[in-house]
Amino acid sequence: MCFSAAASFGASIALTGIGIASLKQVKEPAQYPFASIPLIFGLQQCMEGVVWISSTHPGWTDWLYPASYGFLAVAQMIWPLLFPIAFGLMEKDPGRRKFIRLLQVPGIIIAAYFLYCLISFPMETRITGHHVFYDIDFPRRLIPYAAGFYLAATIGPPVISTDVRMKFMGVILLSGYLVARIFFQPSLISVWCFFGIAMSIIVYMVLRSQKS
Fold it and tell me: What is the residue extent of each domain of the chain?
């Protein structure tokens, strides 16, 4: 969470609860990737809570970079890989399901690119204006292309879905991205994940309605 350690850990606890409740609504194996979304958001927020503590408490400094890299691995690699799979398995329309699965291609490409960047370029984590700023020395000229691939893999699957609630998840993601891009550019990754709570609630609602 982008505001404080308490906010991050509080969000992590809430998301974990939503995640457990979502998993209890699963009625077939194909729903597990979709149901896991809140739990992964919870893990991500827990890691950012550790980032906050290790950035502000000298005794925790050894945990700063492991937590930072863990947060970035989820934010930049897990989501573009998971979303096309999770939403594809939930989609009932064959044509749309095929199109959603095609978005695994940009997801794999951007996840591999971010992995290369995390391995190859220096990274610095710091608190800036009550937000976490992950400063990675990415090749600047490739940033627009990377953003396009990432958005295709994460926002595309829910937007394409036939389920209106899943479409709304895509709207939440896109709105969150635009807000973070316009108002919180240096801390875009951290701020954008704030919208994971709203998405996770919808995950639970979708699974609960399909179970009943």
Answer: 5-211
